[in-house]
Amino acid sequence: MHNLLQLIVRFSNFLLLVGLEVVAFIFVIRGNMYQQMVANGAANAVTASIQLANDNVTSYFRLRSDNAQLLEHNAQLLQENNLLRARITQNESDPSRPKHVNDTITTRKRDDNETITDNTFYLPSDRDYAFIPARVIAFSNDRHHNYLTLNKGERDGVTPDMGVIGKDGIVGVVQSVSTHFAVVAPVIHEGLYISSRIGKNDYMATLHWHMPDIRHAALEDVARHVDIKVGDSIVTSGMSAIFPAGMPVGVVSDVSIGEGDSYYDIDIELATDFRSLRAVHILKYNHRAELDSIQ
Question: What residues make up the domain containing 149?
Answer without folding.
Answer: 128-295
